[in-house]
Design brief:
With 187 residues, the chain is mainly alpha-helical. It contains seven helices and five strands. The chain folds into two domains: 85 residues, no CATH class; 84 residues, no CATH class. Helix content is 53%, strand content 10%. A hairpin with a 2-residue loop joins β3 and β4.
Length: 187
Amino acid sequence: MPIEGDMNQDVMEIMRQERSPDFLSQAQKEYPYLKDKEIDILYNPKPQEQRYLEFYPPDEPGAPDMPRPKGLPMGRVGMEVFRPDVRPIDILGDYVSHYGVQSDPELQKYYGQFDKSIDPEMMQRRYQFHKEQFGETRPYDVWYKQTGLPELFRGYTFNQFGDNAAELYNPQQLMILDRVKQYLGIK
């Protein structure tokens, strides 16, 4: 027999799900690349959260202080969305930069080319910025693989660095990222 507190939590969960925007359908409609991708999305509004979403590869249980949400089953790609203003291109960007670059041979090729074009000193400066501004504590190599490179790959490609993003990249990098945009159908 459920206790009253459990029932209230269940009712609140059902109400939250009923009000959840359909982020995946919107993204699949705008970006056909995602049509055949199986992605679980959990809307978990957190007004104070600076991040828009968190990506979970199929084998990622999460960190001890931020475990994978129960609504995102292991063995499947998952995203936890924190803010209602997440755009379809944000869903595409996180999927591509955290998973597609490993599972799609074409994206894997472009990601490898982009990685080789990165100036190590510039990435060290970005790492310092993340440590100072966001409290980054992971070793550089872990940060680079999980955050630094994916973030830089997304910045221009998925319009996450604003209208002047192209200024942050060299011509070779822009050529690679423009090919990615064309491949994904980003206008």
